[in-house]
Design goal:
The complex is a heterodimer of chains A (251) and B (450). Chain A is of the alpha/beta class and 251 residues long. Chain A is built from ten helices and twelve strands. In chain A, helix 6 runs parallel beside helix 7. Chain A starts with a strand and ends with a helix. Classes of the chains: A alpha/beta (251), B alpha/beta (450). The complex binds adenosine-5'-triphosphate (ATP) and magnesium ion. The site of adenosine-5'-triphosphate has 13 residues of chain A, from strand 2 and helix 1.
Chain lengths: 251, 450
């Protein structure tokens, strides 16, 4: 589904990603962990197509297509979803209008007519239930004045609406209380099937207890320096990153 | 001796003052000689002078437009060509074609007792004492465009709401510019809202013919009495070839509450000036405006709010978007007199500039002469937020749609404050279409080809 090869990227002339290799197949769940500032969010931004970042080397293929040549909206239509570490507030744009525009943009991309108002509202209701998102939030401006946890729930809600093939969830667990974490994780699990895939970026084992990824990658200084199974996450939980940093820095 | 653009108007007046007077009324004619005298020694401020950023009055007034001083009937049937009303808005509808009061079919009858509306000229003939008591009493003749308007204006609109009369239904005035050749329309508006009265006036300025040059010169005098409420909405939907110079003077008595909204949806070159005075305590003013400027359109706004007495509140907010090679300017002066304690004055001017060639200047000027006040001002000239754009695009919205929603959101707080529901809904739709790049905002009007 996703094949990333030797990906280098920079922002403001500073190289952050220094050769990322990553392959994701349908049905898989991957976790990316790594110390603060190692480049996890940068990787997610670059895959989603943030124009602020410049790809200087490497390739990324998404379902056989060249991901890096697509504008962000096409990546979305093609099935890529990014759950932001810091969801953006957009005062004055209502959630409902935003989601309607998003849904209909995708339908237009696939030459389908816009969704009828009743179908749309029905779908919104169903998807809201997936993450138990308060109806009140749906009528407010996008993320404006949402609490940290509400913003994260809202990301998963949008994911549910857009039904992506590959979701990258950047620290969707941070800022969530125990109950919210369960709801969000269950939401992710409900949306999971053999045809889609998920990348969760996280610092904490507690999310992985729910989501249970088969593959764990450690990102450090812009490279994936270690990959393994679920045991790798547990080891990080117990030992921290120092041993990995030492291994890498001594090379 | 005045030179430049003013000269042609002075010459015109010298030659034709008899004809101008004959086609107007005594109270209006009475002020012309003084205007004429003052104009002879006046010089138009140059573009870039204080308070005249991005506003070139000389260039705006230089072309030799025709004037219809003999009040020849211009062959337009406004009812037939004009259907651009705000749907669902049941108003009392009045019309001015160019500067002549035209039609009011059924409008007068629809007004409650105690409301007079119609032709300023007619009223000045029938009831000269009333007009003389107010006409020119607020307008500042040292302002060249006001002197010019006073020298040339022959007709216009008159609205008077008698003491204690409350008019629920919005009153609507539609000003139409339409002619077979370039034309200058000189208009005057006199609005008197007496003590405890309440009304809403919506003024829509339209240009019917997009291919011809028009100049619209307008002076509005607005008197709002004690504890009266008045909402004034002025919507400009003209053309790129329309030049507009509008000057509004407002005097508010104690306890009054006034909203003035200057909405520039389509324009060419626009100059709006607002001069407001709190003459009685405990009065409140909301002065709002917005402009959507693209192509080579220009908008320049000057406002002066005078807090002359204690305990008044003013809330001012202007928002503009500028794209392509559009130019804009906002100057907002707030003057708080030494004795005007407990004044509250808030001002905000925010602008979105969407291209490298577009220009905006913003100048807050707060002069506060006592300590017992709450005043604030904020000004911002910025671009659309990149992160918001990106966020929207990751959800599948293309750049154009994302930009559209963000611009719409930017204007939302101006539009949301409009208290006439039908106008608010309509304006929301029109700005959306406008930002979407549709050549005309109004699908229901003859000009837009329906
Ligand atoms: N606009 C920018 N200009 C310069 N450096 C930047 C910019 N944005 C990010 N960086 C740097 O890139 C590096 C990687 O940041 P990134 O946000 O990808 O880290 P992260 O792994 O997601 O960290 P965290 O776990 O704290 O979320 C950091 O050193 C950061 O300071
Ligand atoms: Mg991060």
């Amino acid at each position: 589904m996703l094949k990333v090869k030797d990906l280098h990227a920079q922002i403001n002339g500073k190289e952050i990603l220094k050769g990322i290799d990553l392959e994701i197949r349908p049905g898989e769940v991957h976790a990316i962990m790594g110390p603060n500032g190692s480049g996890k969010s940068t990787l997610s931004m670059v895959l989603a197509g943030n124009p602020a970042y410049e790809v200087t080397e490497g390739t990324a293929e998404f379902n056989g297509k060249d991901l890096l040549s697509m504008p962000p909206e096409t990546r979305s239509h093609e099935g890529l979803f990014l759950g932001f570490q810091y969801p953006v507030e957009i005062p004055g744009v209502s959630m409902v209008n935003f989601m309607r525009a998003a849904v209909n943009a995708k339908r237009e991309y696939f030459h389908q007519p816009p969704m009828s108002a009743t179908d749309f509202l029905k779908m919104m209701r169903e998807k809201r239930a997936v993450v138990e998102l308060d109806n009140k939030l749906a009528s407010r401006s996008v993320n404006e004045g949402f609490s940290g946890g509400e913003k994260k729930r809202n990301e998963i809600f949008q994911m549910a609406v857009l039904e992506p093939k590959l979701s990258i969830l950047d620290e969707t667990d941070s800022g969530l209380d125990v109950d919210a974490l369960r709801v969000v994780a269950e939401g992710v699990n409900k949306l999971k099937n053999e045809n889609n895939a998920t990348i969760v970026i996280t610092h904490y084992q507690r999310l992985l207890d729910y989501i249970r990824p088969e593959f764990i990658h450690i990102l450090y200084k812009g490279r994936i320096v270690k990959s393994g199974g679920p045991e790798l996450a547990l080891e990080i939980e117990n030992r921290g990153y120092d041993w990995i940093k030492e291994e890498v820095d001594n090379q | 001796m005045s030179m430049g653009a003013l000269k042609q108007y002075i010459d015109l007046f010298r030659e034709h003052c008899g004809l101008i007077d004959a086609n107007s009324a005594a109270p209006l004619n009475a002020l012309r000689p003084e205007a004429y005298r003052l104009l002879q020694d006046m010089k138009l401020p140059a573009e870039g002078d204080d308070n005249y950023e991005n506003c070139d009055l000389e260039a705006m007034l230089a072309p030799d437009y025709g004037l219809n001083i003999a009040r020849v009937d211009i062959d337009v049937n406004p009812q037939a060509t004009f259907r651009c009303d705000v749907p669902m808005l049941t108003t009392s509808l009045f019309m001015l074609v160019n500067d002549t009061f035209a039609a009011a079919e059924g409008a007068v009858e629809s007004l409650p007792e105690g409301v007079e509306a119609g032709s300023l000229r007619r009223l000045a003939i029938e009831n000269p004492e009333v007009v003389s008591a107010y006409y020119g009493k607020l307008a500042d003749m040292t302002n060249p465009v006001t002197a010019l308007d006073t020298m040339l204006a022959q007709d216009g609109f008159y609205l008077r709401i008698r003491k204690g009369v409350k008019v629920d239904k919005p009153i609507q005035l539609v000003n139409i510019l339409e002619n077979g050749m370039p034309l200058m329309a000189v208009r005057r508006m006199l609005i008197i809202v007496e003590d405890e009265a309440e009304a809403k006036l919506l003024v829509c300025d339209h240009t019917q013919n997009p291919d011809l040059d028009f100049l619209s010169l307008e002076t509005v005098e607005m008197f709002v009495g004690c504890n009266a409420r008045f909402d004034y909405y002025n919507l400009e939907e003209s053309t790129e070839k329309t030049t507009r110079i509008s000057t509004l003077y407002l005097r508010q008595e104690a306890g009054s509450n006034v909203s003035v909204d200057g909405l520039t949806l389509f324009n060419g070159t626009t100059r709006n000036e607002y001069y407001t005075l709190f003459a009685g305590e405990d009065a409140e003013l909301h002065l709002y405006g917005m402009g959507i400027e693209d192509a080579s359109r220009k908008v320049s706004t000057y406002s002066r709010i005078d807090h002359a007495v204690p305990r008044c509140r003013s809330n001012e907010m202007f928002k503009y978007t500028l794209d392509d090679t559009a130019k804009g300017a906002f100057t907002g002066r707030i003057h708080v007199a030494p004795g005007a304690v407990k004044t509250e004055a808030f001002q905000s001017n925010r602008n979105l500039v969407g291209s490298n060639e577009a220009r905006m200047t913003s100048r807050p000027e707060l002069e506060i002469y006592n300590d017992d006040v709450k005043c604030s001002h904020g000004t911002a000239i910025g671009q659309l937020n990149e992160m918001q754009m990106f966020y929207m695009r990751t959800r599948g919205l293309d750049e154009a749609t994302a930009r559209l929603l963000l611009k719409q959101a930017f204007m939302a707080d101006i539009i949301d404050r409009i208290k006439v529901d039908a106008l608010r809904d309509r304006l929301r739709l029109m700005t959306e279409r406008r930002f979407a790049g549709e050549s005309s905002a109004c699908a229901s009007c003859a000009r837009c080809g329906r």
